[in-house]
Amino acid sequence: MGGKDVGGTEGADSAGAIPGPVRRDPGRRGPVVAALMLGMALAALDGTIVSTAVPQIVGDLGGFTVFSWLFAGYLLAVTVTLPVYGKLSDTFGRKPVLITGIALFLVGSVLCALAWNMPALIAFRIVQGLGGGAIQGTVQTVAADLYPLKERPKIQAKLSTVWAVSAVAGPAVGGVLATYADWRWIFLINLPVGAVAMWLIARYLREPERVPGREPEREPGRPAVRSRIDWPGALAVFACGGVLLTALVQGGVAWPWLSAPSLALFATSAVLVVVVVTVERRAAEPILPGWVWRRRTIAAVNVALGALGLLMVAPTVFLPTYAQSVLGLDPTAAGFVLSIMTLSWPVSAALSQHVYRRIGFRQTAIIGISLATAILLAFPLLPFPGAAWQPALIMLLLGAALGIFQLPLIVGVQSTVGWSERGTATASILFYRQLGQSVGAALFGAVANATLAARLESAPGAIRDGLPGDLDSVSHALTDPGSALGAGAADYLRRAVDTAVDHVYVGAAGAGVVALVALVVLAPRRFPVLGEVAPGVGPGTGAGPGPGPGAEVGPGAGAGR
């Protein structure tokens, strides 16, 4: 394929297509889909269950000053391993990578349940993250392998539903286990779920026989290549991502942004970026191949989903603080306001196929991100203090808009590459989405704290003394029943938090504009969709070729969009 977008344009009929390596046997597909949903549930439930049990964990193990690394360490491991697992799944197949990932996750879960102090628990959470990276990327790739383009929204909607259910059920399950059993059970509960998923994958997922050192099924005209593991590239990517994410997670928290540790980490990450580029340009089979940026479609989606990760920080990180500190809701009600978004997201994602089949992937995503940007800008217009239904309505609409935005991009990218590149392409767009979340947490945290600091400095002299100095301290002071804040000081702080969160949402809307520009300027008008195997057609069955490179299938041409 070189560095260009090739294949037929979107709208091509997938029924007469290039034979591929995946056997879409409807009789076996159901158990595999169940395994994918169970595997995704492991990753989706992880964060919500653990966050609920943090007070019990800290009370038992101590380590209050470093407990945030329970989440940061896991996120770091998932993010930096996504591209590695993506390349491995293209090289050795999805099945061994997915089984290895689930096994690593379960080993990490057992070790977490046995942790004797906070540093040990953090280290074992990183082990879980090493498995979580394989699960998140490979599940999405297998889903694309199993279903042709016309049916892909079905499996994506199911996977989105897993995240929605996890967002609602996770905190409740975590709270029950931590209160009535022991916090260690939040990790042990992963074992039966993961065991069933592994068994289903081992029994029902069928991949083609692979000739050692060669691709299973090559696309016509594509030469055979030896399967090599780019270990230097994997190590360089892991080191660079680890240092950069550490700088982003700890900056402004463990040390000031302009302090020596922060500057040293950013400088080291910049050097490691150069090392990664140098190593990957020389590698025969790079972990981060240059074509994920040379092809306009994938490059545009990398930027767009990176911006999505950034803007998602506003609702997921700052909305609960707003709901508790400004609206005075308890944690459960605040979580419900946020979870509303996860209810509309999978519904709109499932329905998006009816839109992109008519107008294309790019135009559908542009509509979704335009709506999302307008909705984010509506948040600062909410009255103070307002009622809980108002931000809940905002989140309901935002979830619907983002479902229309994200799914067409994921399905579209997966449909522009062949089997031997699909894992790498999928991991690339997920990697940049995860990286966007890390950058967003650091950036918007700085925005919120700067806004709050400015409001506190301008506070009237009568209430200035004794006011907290950062967002976390302000939030704690407003939600703590034993706080000594007077009525005037409390009202001033609530307004300050309201202003800080408003600024974050404006920044999130700015990220939406970045995604919009990326799609308008970088993405081709029609995604170059490759032909695929029809359901039930296996390799070597003589299915005819799909549309050739550059073929135009427009409206009114049968399957055109």
Describe the structure in your own words.
The chain is mainly alpha-helical and 561 residues long. It has three domains: 24-209, MFS general substrate transporter like domains (Growth Hormone, Chain: A), CATH 1.20.1250; 231-284, no CATH class; 292-530, MFS general substrate transporter like domains (Growth Hormone, Chain: A). Helices cover 70% and strands 0% of the residues. It has 20 helices and no strands. Helix 1 packs antiparallel against helix 5. The model is unreliable at 1-9, 11-24, 211-226 and 533-561 (pLDDT under 50).
The arrangement of helices and strands along the chain is HHHHHHHHHHHHHHHHHHHH
C-alpha termini separation: 24 Å
Q: Into which percent range does the helicity of residues fall? A: over 70%
Question: Strand fraction band?
Answer: under 5%
Low-confidence regions? 1-9, 11-24, 211-226, 533-561
Integer-rounded radius of gyration: 24 Å
When the domains are counted, the total is 3
Overall geometry: globular
Query: Largest sheet, described in full?
Result: none
Number of helix segments? 20
Give keywords.
Growth Hormone, Chain: A, 561 residues, disordered C terminus, 20 helices, 0% strand, 70% helix, mainly alpha, disordered N terminus
